[in-house]
Design a protein that fits this description.
The complex is a heterodimer of chains A (115) and B (113). Chain A is mainly beta. Helix content of chain A is 0%, strand content 50%. In chain A, strands 2, 4, 5, 6, 9, 10 and 11 form a 7-stranded mixed beta sheet that branches. A 4-stranded antiparallel beta sheet of chain A has the order 1-3-8-7, with no helix packed on it. Chain A is globular and about 45 Å long. Chain B has no helices and 11 strands. Classes of the chains: A mainly beta (115), B mainly beta (113). Chain A binds chain B through residues 30-31, 33, 35, 41-45, 48, 50, 55-56, 58, 91, 93, 95, 97, 100-104, 106-109, 111, and chain B through 32, 34, 36, 41-44, 46, 49, 51-52, 90, 92, 94, 96-106.
Chain lengths: 115, 113
């Protein structure tokens, strides 16, 4: 069964450094998303991406964040200058709104630790 | 706008007992509803979903949920709890298409031997 993959599984970085989290969505999907989950809290929407542009973003997704689909398979989340409060699990997801599933398929997550 | 409320941040049941995890939602459009399970230090696994059609939906691991529009609820049940069911459970709502999914705060299920 096709699945969303994410790399790395765990990233440790120092405050102020840039990080790039990588995702490979399911190949025929059209919508891509990033969510985050701070330890012990609920999953929060960050951004959705369709047709090579952001379709929706939350108030969390400020100028420090950016997303990109650099090629036909990868989808990345960049944090320009990490803060301690960026420490969280980051989930990538993808969906294919054609058809009737309406389901977003989630990757296993990248745990980001900012020290 | 959509929102999700999960009643009870922690639920404890004995092995073999009924599991009931409560979820209420609000949505300005017909909702698509989901339950996800998260085991410690792992990702999100879809348990079941309601999109259209039959309001009682069955999922994996013996779980099921019923969509009740009049009560704006989508409670998750399992007739007999197993130790392996101990995890965090998230109810979620989406208007479908390419829109974001809104998650509830989660309910941690404890199963006692």
């Amino acid at each position: 069964e096709p699945e969303v993959t994410q790399t790395p599984s765990h990233q440790v970085t120092q405050m102020g450094q840039e990080v790039i989290l990588r995702c490979v969505p399911i190949s025929n999907h059209l919508y891509f998303y990033w969510y985050r989950q701070i330890l012990g809290q609920k999953v929060e929407f960050l951004v959705s991406f369709y047709n090579n542009e952001i379709s929706e973003k939350s108030e969390i997704f400020d100028d420090q964040f950016s997303v990109e689909r650099p090629d036909g398979s990868n989808f990345t989340l960049k944090i320009r200058s990490t803060k301690l409060e960026d420490s969280a699990m980051y989930f990538c997801a993808s969906s294919d709104p054609r058809g009737n599933s309406y389901e977003q398929y989630f990757g296993p997550g990248t745990r980001l630790t900012v020290t | 706008a959509q929102s999700v409320t999960q009643l009870g941040s922690h639920v404890s049941v004995s092995e073999g007992a009924l599991v009931l995890l409560r979820c209420n939602y609000s949505s300005s459009v017909p909702p698509y509803l989901f339950w996800y399970v998260q085991y410690p230090n792992q990702g999100l696994q879809l348990l079941l979903k309601y999109t259209t059609g039959a309001t009682l939906v069955k999922g994996i691991n013996g779980f099921e949920a019923e969509f009740k529009k009049s009560e704006t609820s989508f409670h998750l049940t399992k007739p007999s709890a197993h130790m392996s069911d101990a995890a965090e459970y998230f109810c979620a709502v989406s208007p479908g298409g390419g829109f974001k999914t809104i998650f509830g705060a989660g309910t941690r299920l404890f199963v006692k031997a």
